[in-house]
């Protein structure tokens, strides 16, 4: 009982000078919670003494944990440019500053400045996408999964959507095409086999209840060996002959040709548009190198029907997304491709990467053992599955530390590396040029 009497009174405790400048209401709430736990621990005989200084430090720690931002910037030294766990594509700082000006002021999100009346939020990116791709119309939702769901719900509710068995994918976060189709109201019509699908499979599948011939990007995997699939241009041709909609869920669509012959793995949006498709959808924050969004382009009459779907209001994007996307698409239109960080990283030469790796090596080799090596990496984000691209990394080691221990120490400083063959690699394919000195400082801090 004497220990219970020693518990500090809340009104006195929260007035401690250590709490000066902090939110009184939050300090009070945390203090009450901690003192309640202390009282219970005393009753359960888990505590046999009380130290008020320790209680104060516990309150301050919990306060810091609650008020410190959980979402933080990190340095991506994994070599994976479109890293799903690290926020995917980077946004150009100048583009972000433009969007900030729009977001921090009233704007014409849904106001037509010429007509002086209500406008449409999607109009801000339509003209740019039309000029870039030759599409008739376009619309943007919050991600490509939403785009898939919205298209299927609009055109295939209680109707059949034809998909090759080899394309019934599951991507990150348990996003499964068959389940999405089911929840959208579409009736899945599987054709072909896992490894082989032929044009006749599409042709024979069409009946009076068919609405869409759908092709799906094989994110994160490839099928090799005794295989065949129907090119999208052939799907478009069959759909036109059968008077149904063709739709390509491109997943990570890219606007222009990519280096390292990546277009042999995934054709560009501009290439696909040559076939005059009915509908395409693709992500904004993958190889396009912009903000998270699901972009739908295609025939005007089909986009018009999508706009009438009540689900669109739940899936629509806000002013910041539209401002960023418009600016990034304009960079494509003006051929200012260095303004797209994803493309800039992808196109950086091996010579330049080696130069940066050597600069870091010179800065830290007095502290740890390091070696510049040429290796390979993946682009990430489910793009160009199993297609590796060349890169340069700095392999580092320190005393008798295991790779996992070094990784943990660097991660504590928000430097995210990768381990390959039990070696710590700092991969320069995903590191910005202005981050080299910052990485050197982190390593010196950790190993000192």
From TrEMBL:
EC number: 2.9.1.1
Residue list for modification N6-(pyridoxal phosphate)lysine: 286
GO MF entries: L-seryl-tRNA(Sec) selenium transferase activity
GO cellular component terms, semicolon-separated: cytoplasm
An annotated GO BP: conversion of seryl-tRNAsec to selenocys-tRNAsec
Record pathway: Aminoacyl-tRNA biosynthesis; selenocysteinyl-tRNA(Sec) biosynthesis; selenocysteinyl-tRNA(Sec) from L-seryl-tRNA(Sec) (bacterial route): step 1/1
UniProt keyword RNA-binding, yes or no: no
Pfam family, one: SelA
Localization per record: Cytoplasm
Domain of life assignment: Bacteria
Protein's UniProt keywords contain Translocase: no
Enzyme class: transferase
Cofactor requirements of the protein: pyridoxal 5'-phosphate
InterPro entries: PyrdxlP-dep_Trfase, PyrdxlP-dep_Trfase_major, SelA-like, SelA_trans
Alphabetically ordered keywords of this record: Cytoplasm, Protein biosynthesis, Pyridoxal phosphate, Selenium, Transferase
Reactions mediated catalytically: L-seryl-tRNA(Sec) + selenophosphate + H(+) = L-selenocysteinyl-tRNA(Sec) + phosphate
HAMAP family, A to Z: SelA
General function of this protein: Converts seryl-tRNA(Sec) to selenocysteinyl-tRNA(Sec) required for selenoprotein biosynthesis.
Membership in a protein family: Belongs to the SelA family.
Stored NCBIfam families: selA
Designated name of the protein: L-seryl-tRNA(Sec) selenium transferase
């Amino acid at each position: 009982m004497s220990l219970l009497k020693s518990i500090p009174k809340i009104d006195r405790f929260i007035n401690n000078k250590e709490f000066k400048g902090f939110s009184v209401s939050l300090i009070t709430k945390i203090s009450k919670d901690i003192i309640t736990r202390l009282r219970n621990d005393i009753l359960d005989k888990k505590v046999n003494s009380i130290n008020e200084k320790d209680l104060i430090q516990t309150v301050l720690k919990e306060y810091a944990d609650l008020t410190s931002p959980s979402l933080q910037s990190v340095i991506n030294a994994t070599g994976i440019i479109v890293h799903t766990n690290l926020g995917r594509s980077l946004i150009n700082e100048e583009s972000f500053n433009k969007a900030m000006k729009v977001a921090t002021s009233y704007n014409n999100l849904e106001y037509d400045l010429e007509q002086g009346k209500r406008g449409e939020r999607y109009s801000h990116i339509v003209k740019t996408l039309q000029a870039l791709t030759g599409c008739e119309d376009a619309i943007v939702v919050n991600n490509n999964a939403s785009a898939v769901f919205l298209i299927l719900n609009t055109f295939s509710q209680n109707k059949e959507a034809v998909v090759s068995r080899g394309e019934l994918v599951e991507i990150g976060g348990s996003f499964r095409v068959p389940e999405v189709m089911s929840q959208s109201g579409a009736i899945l019509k599987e054709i072909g086999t896992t490894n082989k699908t032929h044009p006749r499979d599409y042709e024979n599948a069409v009946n009076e209840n068919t609405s869409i011939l759908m092709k799906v990007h094989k994110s994160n995997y490839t099928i090799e060996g005794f295989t065949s699939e129907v090119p999208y241009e052939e799907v478009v041709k069959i759909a036109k002959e059968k008077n149904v909609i063709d739709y390509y869920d491109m997943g990570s669509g890219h606007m222009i040709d990519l280096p390292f012959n990546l277009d042999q793995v995934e054709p560009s949006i501009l290439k696909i548009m040559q076939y005059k498709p009915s509908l395409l959808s693709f992500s904004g924050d993958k190889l396009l190198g912009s903000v998270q969004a699901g972009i739908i382009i295609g025939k005007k009459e089909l986009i018009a029907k999508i706009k009438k779907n009540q689900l669109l209001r739940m899936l629509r994007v806000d002013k910041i997304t539209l401002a960023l996307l418009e600016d990034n698409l304009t960079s494509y239109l003006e051929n200012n491709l260095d303004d797209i960080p994803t493309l800039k990283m992808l196109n950086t030469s091996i010579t330049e990467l080696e130069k940066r790796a050597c600069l870091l090596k010179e800065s830290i080799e007095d502290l740890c053992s390091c070696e510049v090596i040429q290796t390979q990496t993946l682009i990430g984000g489910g793009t160009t599955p199993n297609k590796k691209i060349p890169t340069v990394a700095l392999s580092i080691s320190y005393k008798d530390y295991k790779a996992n221990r070094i990784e943990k120490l660097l991660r504590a400083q928000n430097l995210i590396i990768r381990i390959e063959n039990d070696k710590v690699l700092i991969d320069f394919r995903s590191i910005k040029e202005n981050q080299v000195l910052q990485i050197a400082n982190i390593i010196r801090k950790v190993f000192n």
